[in-house]
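Researcher: I'd like a candidate sequence for this fold, 135 residues long. If you have to choose between options at a position, lean toward the conservative one.
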């Protein structure tokens, strides 16, 4: 093999595959949180879409549906940044758990708002009323 020839298969197996294996191995602990947040974002989207299609199908706008993809991307980026920050800067603080729980709570609140639109009943309002002492 001369200096000017390029062996793409050798380059791929020698450099690219190990690089992706290292990246995958490093970020593997985030899969649980990414999957959980993705589940709740998709559930919110499905509930919102079903409510829109039930009330008036012509109100569905696909450009607004892209916000779900953006929310999912932002959630993934936040979890990855929290994981790297937790590993590098402050290993004693569970940043990924805190941020992941917050994102899931925001999605649950959004699902509860959609459920309140459909049923007129809010579970969060009921729980908050039970937790706050009456005066």
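Model: Candidate sequence:
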């Amino acid at each position: 093999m001369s200096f000017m020839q390029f062996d793409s298969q050798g380059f791929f197996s020698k450099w690219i595959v190990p690089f992706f294996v290292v990246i995958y191995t490093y970020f593997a602990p985030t899969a649980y949180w990414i999957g959980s947040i993705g589940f709740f974002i998709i559930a919110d989207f499905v509930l919102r879409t079903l409510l829109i299609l039930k009330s008036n199908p012509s109100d569905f706008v696909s450009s607004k549906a892209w916000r779900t993809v953006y929310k999912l991307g932002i959630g993934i980026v936040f979890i990855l940044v929290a994981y790297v920050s937790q590993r590098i800067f402050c290993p004693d603080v569970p940043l990924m758990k805190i941020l992941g729980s917050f994102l899931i709570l925001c999605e649950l609140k959004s699902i509860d708002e959609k459920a309140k639109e459909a049923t007129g009943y809010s579970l969060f309002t009921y729980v908050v009323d039970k937790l706050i002492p009456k005066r």
